[in-house]
Amino acid sequence: TVFLYKQDHGEVYAGGTNFVLRLNTTSFQIIEVRCIWGRRLIYLGCVEDPCQNVITVIEELNDGVFVCGTNGHRPQCWTLREPFVVVEQAICSLLNNTDTITLACLFTEGDLYAAAPFDRNGRSLQFRRTTGRRTRVSMYNNWVSEPTFIGSSWVKRENDPDNEKIYVFFREKNSDTNPEADHWISRVARVCKVDEGGSKRFFQNMWTTFIKARLVCGFPEESLYLNRLQDIYVLHDRNWNNTRVYAIFTSNWNSTAVCIYTIGMIEDVFEKSTFKGYNKTIPTPRPGHCIKNSRTIPLATVSVVKDHPEMAGWVHSVHYNTPFYVSSYNYTKITVDQVRGADNSVYNVLLLATGTTFGLGAVCGSL
């Protein structure tokens, strides 16, 4: 399920176990197959026999392709160009089971953001900026509870780059211990791209702008929700407010639903909601706001981020009272393609996949 499409080169890179395929999309022929653990690479750290290296990340990086793999339980990353270059170790998931690998790795202007274990034992899974030209920053441990990271996206603002955000989508353990409550809650969080961490005195090398909100998909009038986020696809728009997030959710009653959100709707909650559990006057600047020099953010603002990062308001879908699409099939993957119809209108076509099949799930109206 790990792919990279390089449109300018007409190539698709696909990750498997112990190999990466590079395909020419014009003829759909395999033009190159490389085994990551060929004999000439055996000394890069994988000495067990057999060494299973499940490819978990394929991203475009400058003039090469950035690839990460489980590397026999010792995660490692390379830049794919001749020769292979070891870039960094242990920045993505330690999981070695292809059925459970879920990652949120993102390259933005030379910086790598990754859902990664904080140490080599795989503990404290968190969303970090791990390498690049900007400062490496991490999360505060109390911000999430046993998270499963689904995906992330950088949303550009052509005329306001200092206010650009990185959005992270995940589900985490529900703190509600009621037997009738779902074990999981779906979330969207954001951090500012310019966030360099706090001052040396407080929150150094920690996100100063991390805030999160509940992502709701279901039937609010019946208090019936699908709470397990499975996958997302972000369809970017030149107007960042109109950038759409298509998300798949599953439920306890074996249903799957697709809900649609806009970045404008998500931002509305982050900018206007109160902070859950915080009853004082919200300090200025507002917690979560982007400040070009994050080390100068006042202690009062960072303290709210530290202790009360969750918004009281929920992020509802575009259709609010009902999901965009509901199915009894257990869909786990989604992608969206834009096509022009015979009526010259542009349509968004949703492609949904289960664990074993792939097919058309739904078609939305013309834009």
How would you briefly describe this protein structure?
The protein has helices at 263-272, 299-307, and strands spanning 3-6, 11-15, 20-24, 29-34, 55-61, 64-69, 76-80, 85-89, 106-108, 111-117, 125-131, 148-155, 165-173, 184-192, 211-215, 218-219, 224-225, 228-235, 244-250, 256-262, 310-315, 325-327, 333-340, 346-353, 358-366.
CATH homologous superfamily heading of the largest domain:
YVTN repeat-like/Quinoprotein amine dehydrogenase
For the biggest β-sheet, the strand order reads: 12-13-14-15-21
User: Per CATH, which architecture of the largest domain?
Assistant: 7 Propeller
Number of domains in the coordinates? 2
Instruction: Give the termini separation.
Output: 29 Å
Q: For the CA atoms, what is the radius of gyration?
A: 21 Å
Structural class: mainly beta
CATH topology category name of the largest domain: Methylamine Dehydrogenase, Chain H
Q: Quick one: biggest sheet?
A: 5 strands, mixed
Determine the fraction of residues in helical runs and give it as a percent range. under 10%
Description:
One of its GO terms (cellular component) is external side of plasma membrane. It comes from Periophthalmus magnuspinnatus. This is Sema domain-containing protein. GO terms for molecular function: chemorepellent activity; integrin binding; semaphorin receptor binding. InterPro entries: Semap_dom (IPR001627), Semap_dom_sf (IPR036352), Semaphorin (IPR027231), WD40/YVTN_repeat-like_dom_sf (IPR015943). The protein is mainly beta and 367 residues long. The protein is built from two helices and 25 strands. Residues 29-49, 92-102 and 358-363 have low confidence and may be disordered. The chain is 5% helix and 41% strand. The radius of gyration is 21 Å and the shape is globular. The two termini are 29 Å apart. The chain has two domains: 1-97, no CATH class; 102-366, YVTN repeat-like/Quinoprotein amine dehydrogenase (Methylamine Dehydrogenase, Chain H, 7 Propeller). The strands form seven sheets. A five-stranded mixed sheet has the order 12-13-14-15-21, with helices on one face. A four-stranded antiparallel sheet has the order 1-2-3-4, with no helix packed on it. Strands 5-6-7-8 form a four-stranded antiparallel sheet, with no helix packed on it.
